[in-house]
Specification:
Radius of gyration: 18 Å
Number of helices: 10
Order of helices and strands: EHEHHEHEHEHEHHEHEH
CATH class: Alpha Beta
Number of domains: 1
CATH topology: TIM Barrel
Strand content: 5-15%
Structural class: alpha/beta
Length: about 280
Amino acid sequence: MALQTLPIVGAALPIRLLPLHLNWLLEAQRDLEIQDPAVRPNLLDTDWRPLVHEARVILDGYQGRLGIHGPYDGIVIKTRDRRVRQLAIERLQQALAFAAELGATQMVMHSPFLFLGDSFVPHSFASSRARVIEQVHQVIDAVLPLAVQIGCELVFENVLDGNPAPLLALVQSFSDAAVRVSLDTGHAAIAHRQGGTAPAEWVTEVGALLGHLHLQDNDGRADRHWCPGDGEVDWHALFAAVGSLAHRPRLLIELHHHDQIPKAAAWFAAQGLAR
């Protein structure tokens, strides 16, 4: 594949590490996901505006697609408990305020389908799936107008999802195009080891509703966030599937050790998969 036609990968980073990767980000205006609202959730209860200002100063000249990872630790968006629901709404609204100040146009949230069992059993009954979707709407319907107002797309990331069907049904239940799917390749690889859908097949099945990918590898036994090429993910199949799409979902390297991002980018380039 010609270099000019290869997809461009970016990375998920905390603000404090932006200077270390800035030249790489700017050279191709790569996708960028700011992790602070997720990895530092208590930040949202402080005056975070100076931190966002710092990020904007560092990113002077950056014109790529900018997003954030929303809070997820203890944030339950599928619940019958009114107080828990209100907490989730408040936290997500705080994260969207952060996104608006930063200029982010996408926020990642975790899938509500937390099921332990066979990959093709959960939520197979329409009534069960409908109950989950109804409860999620009670949270997201309170958040979505703000997301639309600031131009920030919401993407639901697979976590324990064994196959795309429930998450697709959830996303399709929103009439607004501002809600889409995020694929974490490592999460899908673990599910695939247990009989679920392979990462490349996720891309194919989700299709036009795929807005974002976390690119990470593992051995299928734990969520290790290894450098691509160090685990079991079939990256050639994955990028072939991504290349067949009529649009360009965001591609974010998401590693446990951020200092391995250059290694990951170099591996993708050496494989002729991305630049």
